[in-house]
Amino acid sequence: xxxxxxxxxxxxEDRYLALVLATTAGILNAMALGAFGxxxxxxxxxxxxxxxxxxxxxxxxLIFLAVLIAAFVIGSVCARFMVLAGLKKNFRTIFCxxxxxxxxxxxLISVFELAFYSPGNNKEISVLLGFLMGIHNSTSTxxxxxxxxxxxxxxxxxxxxxxxxSFVSSFISHVSYSERRFQQKQLYTHLxxxxxxxxxCIVGLLLFRFAGFVAMLGLGVFLAVVALWAIAVTLHxxxxxxxxxxxxxxx
Length: 251
Fold this sequence. Notes:
Elements: H1 11-36, H2 43-56, H3 59-88, H4 94-116, H5 122-143, H6 153-173, H7 177-211, H8 213-250
Helix pairs in contact: 1-5, 1-7, 1-8, 2-3, 3-5, 4-5, 4-8, 6-7, 7-8
InterPro entries: DUF1275
Organism: Erwinia aeris
Protein name: YoaK family protein
C-alpha cells in the first residue's frame, strides 16, 4: 500500500491507500475545524475566501489565507523533493518515511497544544497543519500515480464523474470487457476516496469533541504505526528474498 513497486499498482492497493490516507486526512481536517475554525486542506475554499478578504480590506485575513495556501504548496513541494531523492537512491520505503515524519510532527503539535493551547496560536498551528496536509496529499498522489488524492475531493469527484460516464458509455459503444472493467475499478477507487474522506470528517469531529487534542495525538500515533508496519513488512520481505536467492546460489 505504501510501497512504490516496479509493477503497475493495482486498484486494490490504491483503495487501501485511500482508506488509510483519505480517512486520516478527513479526520485531521475536521479536528482542525473544531480546534481552530479553519480547514487546513480546503484550498479551493481558502482561495475563494481571499476575494472576500480583498473586498472587505481585511489585510490580516488576506495574509493568513495567503500563507496557509503557500504552506500547503510548500508541503507538496517538500514531499516531491523527498520522493525524488528517495527513488534516486532506491529507498523503497521513502513514502513510509514521509508519512512517519508527518506523524511525528503532528504528534508534536498535539503535545504542544495539550500543554500550551492558546487562541493566539490558532493561525500558526493552522499553517503548520496546512503544510502537513500538503505533504499528505502530495504523498498519496505520487504513490498512486494520481488516482488517490487524499485531500482533493473536488478533483476526485470530477474523476469519479468521468469514470462513471466512461463506464456507462461503454455499454453503448460496446467496448471490450477489459476496458469496461478498468473503468469500473477506477470508479470504485475514486468513490472509496470520497467516502473515506467523508467518514473521516464525521469521525474527526466526534473524536475531537470527545477527546480534544488527545484524539489528534492518537491520529499521529496511528499514522506512525501504519508507516512503521509498512517499513517492517518491506524489510522482512527483502530479507526473505535475499535469503532465497542465496539459497538458490548455494544449491
